[in-house]
Amino acid sequence: MDNKTELLAKIQIWIADFGVKAISAFMLVLIGIQLARFLQTLVGNSLQKARIDATLGSFASNLVYIAVVAMTVIVAMGQLGVQTASFIAILGSIGVAIGLALQGSLSNFAAGILIIVLRPFKVGDYIECLNIGGTVTRIHPLNTTLITPDNRTIVAPNRKLFDDCLTNHSAQPHRRIDLVFGTGYENDIDRVKQIIWDVVERDRRILTEPKTLVGVLDWGSLGIRFAVRPWVQAADYEDVYFEIQEAVKKRFDEEGILVPCDLPRY
């Protein structure tokens, strides 16, 4: 009886002790979850006030929530007497293995975060990279979606966009159009320049500042080439580019300006 009584007493003590630890661990988890939610909201609101991209803000706030909950669970397991050192080591090993397996995705993710924070381009910008040009329609932490002028959808890895040279045609409000018109040597230079000036001055989309440049580019074996450099609003670039060439050709025809058919234009 004495042995049974002693064993029963030990069991009761162990149950009582474990019950206290279990309640403490449960309370820690509850407090940790509440703290995680509070920090998640705090980080999300702070990033929103700082005008950080919504995708990055959502990811960062969720990451804070997961990190706090994970730390709370580990602390609670320690409260129950679980050896957390080996558990953390196992998680670390798993993390390293996952990192090695997903190193390409992780590099794209890191580049995506930098793109969202540094903003070398934004949704709606027209960019060129890797011999591909298109309008940005979506920036994801792993890739960026472009729509080309001929309506193709391009999904580009963020690492490529961030590491390679990138041209953002929408970053500045104004763009310069580089045009070249050729004429034969029998034409008067001043007359040709005046015709080009007349066409440029009639187009109200062409800006007065910066000033348009019209000048002789070079002398070739077949004729003379004139460089024309008007400035326009970025949104008008394509329309003006094509319409100015058409207008100059029509004026050349009206004025009898001869253009050798084999004269290089570019």
UniProtKB/TrEMBL annotation:
<feature type="transmembrane region" description="Helical">
    <location>
        <begin position="59"/>
        <end position="81"/>
    </location>
</feature>
<keyword id="KW-0812">Transmembrane</keyword>
<keyword id="KW-1133">Transmembrane helix</keyword>
<feature type="transmembrane region" description="Helical">
    <location>
        <begin position="20"/>
        <end position="39"/>
    </location>
</feature>
<dbReference type="InterPro" id="IPR010920">
    <property type="entry name" value="LSM_dom_sf"/>
</dbReference>
<dbReference type="InterPro" id="IPR045275">
    <property type="entry name" value="MscS_archaea/bacteria_type"/>
</dbReference>
<dbReference type="InterPro" id="IPR023408">
    <property type="entry name" value="MscS_beta-dom_sf"/>
</dbReference>
<dbReference type="Pfam" id="PF21088">
    <property type="entry name" value="MS_channel_1st"/>
</dbReference>
<dbReference type="Pfam" id="PF21082">
    <property type="entry name" value="MS_channel_3rd"/>
</dbReference>
<dbReference type="GO" id="GO:0008381">
    <property type="term" value="F:mechanosensitive monoatomic ion channel activity"/>
</dbReference>
<dbReference type="InterPro" id="IPR011066">
    <property type="entry name" value="MscS_channel_C_sf"/>
</dbReference>
<dbReference type="InterPro" id="IPR008910">
    <property type="entry name" value="MSC_TM_helix"/>
</dbReference>
<dbReference type="InterPro" id="IPR049278">
    <property type="entry name" value="MS_channel_C"/>
</dbReference>
<dbReference type="Pfam" id="PF05552">
    <property type="entry name" value="MS_channel_1st_1"/>
</dbReference>
<dbReference type="Pfam" id="PF00924">
    <property type="entry name" value="MS_channel_2nd"/>
</dbReference>
<dbReference type="GO" id="GO:0005886">
    <property type="term" value="C:plasma membrane"/>
</dbReference>
<feature type="transmembrane region" description="Helical">
    <location>
        <begin position="87"/>
        <end position="118"/>
    </location>
</feature>
<protein>
    <submittedName>
        <fullName>Small-conductance mechanosensitive channel</fullName>
    </submittedName>
</protein>
<keyword id="KW-1003">Cell membrane</keyword>
<dbReference type="InterPro" id="IPR011014">
    <property type="entry name" value="MscS_channel_TM-2"/>
</dbReference>
<dbReference type="InterPro" id="IPR049142">
    <property type="entry name" value="MS_channel_1st"/>
</dbReference>
<feature type="domain" description="Mechanosensitive ion channel MscS C-terminal">
    <location>
        <begin position="177"/>
        <end position="257"/>
    </location>
</feature>
<feature type="domain" description="Mechanosensitive ion channel transmembrane helices 2/3">
    <location>
        <begin position="62"/>
        <end position="103"/>
    </location>
</feature>
<comment type="similarity">
    <text>Belongs to the MscS (TC 1.A.23) family.</text>
</comment>
<keyword id="KW-0472">Membrane</keyword>
<feature type="domain" description="Mechanosensitive ion channel MscS">
    <location>
        <begin position="105"/>
        <end position="170"/>
    </location>
</feature>
<dbReference type="InterPro" id="IPR006685">
    <property type="entry name" value="MscS_channel_2nd"/>
</dbReference>
